[in-house]
Amino acid sequence: MFGMDIVSLDIQRSRDHGIPSYTQFRKYCGLKDIKNEQDLNQIMVKGSTNKLLRQYKTWDDIDLLIGALFEKHEDDAMVGPTMRCIIREQFIRTRTADRYFYDLPKVFKKHQLAEIRKVTLARVFCDNSDNISKMQQQVFFKPVSAENDLLPCDSLLIPKINLKHWLETVDTNRK
Q1: Is residue 144 part of a domain?
Q2: Do the domain assignments include residue 150?
Q3: In the chain, which ranges are continuous DSSP H helix?
Q4: How far from chain centre, in Å, is Cα 108?
Q5: Residues 11 and 88 in one domain
Q6: Chain centre distance of CA 14
Q7: Domain span including residue 132
Q8: For 14, which of 19, 91, 113, 169 could close a Cys bridge (C-beta 3.0–4.6 Å)?
Q9: Residue-wise pLDDT tens digits, 131-159
Q10: How far apart are alpha carbons 167 and 175 in whole angstroms?
Q11: Which of 112, 118, 117, 128 is nearest to 157 (CA)?
Q12: Cβ–Cβ under 8 Å, residues 82 and 22
């Protein structure tokens, strides 16, 4: 189709499905309410407030996608506080709905859970990759600094899981 782009299509989809506005999502997330243009100016990328208010009658009409795209990013994130809230909420719901998720109550015993939590992705790579004998502790960072040098896979700094925590004790008194 001519004249279609993903952003306009997503805006229309959100309207078709009754997705609440940007300001309604901010309320849901417990973020500061937008009461005037100055409030909007503080949370949006510099220079975007005038553009938004030319397209929308009021800040309460701003579509979620557009508001989220124009929102200033959090210091330690690639998204603003509203989208961060939505992403967090989705991860929590996904984890809670997964009856096999490892840290839900009654899935593992406390000592088993402690054993699982000590294992890192470095250990997973060491144990499950072909011809790997060295790995850095922090696998997502290049092994260029002394803090993240390549270590032998049998190093104590790349902890192994102790499977003995899953052994079931056998009652020898039973007949």
Answers
A1: yes
A2: yes
A3: 6-16, 22-28, 37-43, 48-55, 64-70, 81-97, 110-118, 121-128
A4: 24
A5: yes
A6: 22
A7: 110-166
A8: 19
A9: 889 999 889 988 777 677 889 999 999 99
A10: 20
A11: 118
A12: yes
Give the domain-ending residue among 62, 96, 130.
96
Asked whether the beta carbons of 79 and 24 are under 8 A apart, the reply is no
3-state secondary structure of 136: strand
Q: Which two tokens stand for residue 30?
A: 């417990």
Q: What pLDDT tens digit does each residue of the chain (175 aa) get?
A: 566 789 999 999 999 999 999 999 999 999 999 999 999 999 999 999 999 999 999 999 999 999 999 999 988 889 999 999 999 999 999 988 888 888 888 888 899 999 999 999 999 999 999 988 999 988 998 877 767 788 999 999 999 999 999 988 655 665 5
Q: What are phi and psi of 145, to 5 degrees?
A: -100, 165
3-state helix, strand, coil in the chain (%, to 5): 50, 5, 45
Q: Is residue 138 part of a domain?
A: yes
Give the pLDDT of residue 171. Answer: 59
Gap between the Cα atoms of 151 and 112, Å rounded: 26
Structural tokens at position 6: 């993903």
